[in-house]
Structure prediction request, 250 residues.
Amino acid sequence: MRFIKNYPALFIEEIKALVIADLHIGIEYEMYKSGINIPSQVSKMKRTIKKLIEQTKAKRLVILGDVKHDVLGVNYQEMKEIPKFLESLSKMVKIDICLGNHDTYLKELSPKGVKIHGSRGFKIGKFGFNHGHTWPSKEIFSCDYLIISHIHPMIQFKDKFGYRIIKPVWIKGRIHQEMIKKRYKIKKTGKLEVIIMPAFNNLLGGTPVNVKKTSDELLGPLLKNEFIDMDESELYLLDGTFLGELKNIH
Prediction:
């Protein structure tokens, strides 16, 4: 399993799977309604994904939710672009999608052959996949690796003059096995290493994880309830730079 350098994408050699998350197709339409005119990024994202499929020789594409942007319904851009987008990619690889909190009516927009999994996630061998906004299914905790998204993780850099920039990051950590055993009433789990993926769509904002937050501000039940020890987690920039453990990054 490896991060693809300079891209918010993960490749899992054992199952020949390219993993991405948080495409938010349709966000440009929402921006347009707010007076911001940005051309659709869908063709650009599709070209990038196809390039990564060819580069890695992936046989499967896993999308960890939030393929679409509109939470309550389907906007014009989503209706027009999502079916063609998924149809084009499905000609290259098998597609598995875990429903995210923005994916209302995604099943109706998806072409035949695209596998839509429920919001509690699914597993392939020792790898578990979940968007991150719901409690994962019990079966996923038999996996050695859990890959989630949802929070659009970022790191905030600030200099002595107060100038700030934020950059997307990978988060690599561990889930507390004993807490999982207690909540799910199970005797045994896998290793439960966790990867939190950055968002694939670069128009999105995110969560600066090195800025102190209350539990109410954290996204997803695993983080809100401290099932993941974020302080001990390792952070990496998209170019592969290791930033250290979160507890040491201010």
